[in-house]
Give the backbone structure.
Amino acid sequence: MENKIRVGVSSCLLGNPVRFDGGHKHDRYITDVLGNYFEFIPVCPEVECGLPVPRETMRLVGDPVSPKLLTTKTGIDHTSRMLSFCNRKVKELEKENLSAFIFKKNSPSSGLYRVKVYGNSGMARKNGRGLFAASMVNAYPLLPVEEEGRLQDAHLRENFIEKVFCYQRWKDFLANAPDYKKLILFHACHKLQIMAHSTKHLSAMGKLVASGKKTGPKELFFSYQENLLEALNLKATVKKNVNVLQHIMGYFKKDLTSDEKAELLGVIDSYSWQHLPLVVPLTLLNHYIRKYKVEYLQNQTYLEPHPAELMLRNHV
Ligand code: SF4
């Protein structure tokens, strides 16, 4: 990679002492592992909207769709202060050319999923979203987003990072004088990766590209991007991966000796039962792709959608 991928992140996750108590929530996986590939743009909505460190804790209260942000003990309403910051900040971030955002879970400002919203009775339901996280998602609905807590789940982690790298490739495509011919190439390399998420999207995108000459480039690229990110939002399950692995095998099935075929089928079967991680059948398939020189497959992003050093497929 020539340049690191630009990713927004809740500031406290980088170890910055911006939390209500003057502390942080440094996440070593984010800084020490993802930091090798991502350049982080930190955002602390509470400090950047003018609140001090330390400060009184806050919580969301009222309607989960448009909750108020109130201090916990004194009930001071910081909703409009926070919302005007959010409006300003999402516009400012346009210049940052972000390819993803990683949010701090549970925060009434930064939490992305299942943030507590308190009702009048004082009871909380986990059905809200932090005000800044909600503004980001509204402003950039296609941007890959995730929470640091969910990144501890191997499947969610792999899915998110795969999406970030793919989105970056797409942005590089757009930034380098894109045209119809280049789109055909981009699509050809991503076919199996898309297939692992959604055969429905793969077929729709195939039709979109095939009839693309009739469509204006702006409209064509926009529809393609929408479909691509929509497809990647659908989880690549074991069953879907098995389908892709068998599909890959189909390209050189006739070249394999009976021993090789039996071994490969056995490994795919073990993966389907989750006795082996995805990296095992993929390593074997890569070996045969090289051995039998299957050029079409050599260029497939599915075989290495993110750097192997991240070892993401060793755990799914
Ligand atoms: S969770 Fe968000 S608002 Fe709270 S300290 Fe971290 S970055 Fe700031």
Remarks:
- The pocket of iron/sulfur cluster is lined by residues 10-12, 18-19, 44-46, 104, 107, 109-110 (CB under 6 Å).
- Residues 30 and 134 are 22 Å apart (CA to CA).
- Residues 154-175 form the longest helix (22 residues).
- The mean pLDDT is 97.
